[in-house]
Amino acid sequence: MASLLFYLLAATALLATLLCITRRSPVHAVIFLINAFFALALMFYLLGAPLIAAWEVIVYAGAIMVLFLFVIMTLELSPESQRPALSRRQWAPALLLFLLLLISAGLILTFDPAGQAGVPFFYASPRSFGAALFNRYGLAVEIVSFQLLFAAAGAYYLGRRRKARQPEESS
Amino acid sequence: MNDLLLTGLLMLIKLGMILAVLLTMAAYLVLAERKLLARMQRRYGPNRVGFGGMLQPLADLIKLLTKEDFLPAQADKWLFLLAPGLAAVTALLAFAVVPFAPPLELFGRQLPMVVCDLNVGILYFFGLSSLAVYGVALGGWASNSKYALLGALRAMGQMLSYELAMGLSIVPVILMARSFSLTEIVQAQASLPFALTNPLAFGIFFIAALAESKRTPFDLPEAENELVAGFHTEYSGMRFGLFFVGEYLNLVVLGAIITSLFLGGWHGPLLPPIIWFLGKVLAVAFVFIWIRGTLPRLRYDQLMAFGWKALLPLALVNLLATGGILLWLGGAS
Fold first, then answer.
1. What is the ipTM metric for this complex?
2. A1-76: which CATH architecture?
3. Domain boundaries, chain B
4. Full-model pTM
5. In sequence order, what are the beta bridge partners of B104?
6. pLDDT per residue over B162-215, tens digit each?
7. Among residues A39, A67, A106, B329, which is most buried (max CB within 10 A)?
8. Set of chain A residues whose Cβ sits within 8 Å of the Cβ of B124
């Protein structure tokens, strides 16, 4: 049952991602990406990580994609102004990347015996996940959150300065 | 085998009853809102269909079903058709984690009075409430109309801004209950509801819930005098009805969540638990309607400023204070 669900979800995620990068309309692309995130979240749940699954939906599908959609909707006001098809110059790097991915996946599967074994089932309740995260990796979590704070403050500063300069120039 | 059958049957009965009660409540909340608003404005409200207007929701339903299902020219067909369903389904699914009574003893087994007691229940609610914006956003975009698009953009900005304050306002509740599960949060309030022990969190959550449900004073996505009807301008017939049902389902669900998180859930003296739960949910819904009948609409910049500059810092300070007090009391160990 679980493995059947897994294959269904994996197929959904792959298909949705494929459709996401091939759609002409950016809004449709975003919707397929949301679908992919959903499938991923359910896979996390199947793997025994309900907390990660919930965050995947809340943060990626629920917040970041809403921002994407917001920006796209404000940019693409007319339905005619849609992205042109992929040009030939874009195909080469895409194929190269795909080849690299295939080769690395093949290498991992053939040479690393650990890669062939399935991930052992491990159920992480929110409580034990939090305890492990903050007891064992507390310092790292704090450092990462500080970095995020710096990034947020930096972005704010960059956005702020240009706004403040404009009235000076005009006056 | 027989055992499995019985469990499945009980489950089906429970789900059917919840669905019926939720949809009926949503339908009659529409009537209640119209009646109460009318009374607040010294009118009678709908009182012709059935006894005192009691069959008005049914009449509305028949009217909506017989109307033409209109598809605007150059609308994005699939998204236009899908969006109202998305709006209604997310509201309906969110109720799954709300416990509405203590477990029931039936045929010698315990039947939990909640659809699914997830250990990340409150996060599940958040996930669905953040997905609810897609119904509105996609419906507004797919209509290919300026008014609808503006309504959709407003809805996205508003819901994104208030979701942060909403999320931060319940972290103190999780700290006090020491669990993400709504059932355990309700059980932690057996003696004293969290609305009394942490009124600030309650206030912030209530205001954010008002904004999330797009109701007055935060009904900018559908501000009638600016945007005709906002995101559902182009919708007709039962598709418009679905948006409407979704909105009132959302009202019920938010009432249920507020009840579980802050008002002690099913706990209460004398009366049976389910009555207490329903009474609290309806009381919250009444306050929502009351606010709609009383307050004017905010301007968009006021709405954004209030969310980011007042609610969010307050929620952060409250989180810090609650954490500090809990540590001081030795609650965390």
1. 0.76
2. Up-down Bundle (1.20)
3. 67-332
4. 0.80
5. B111
6. 888 888 888 888 888 888 888 888 888 888 888 788 888 899 999 998 888 888
7. A39
8. 54
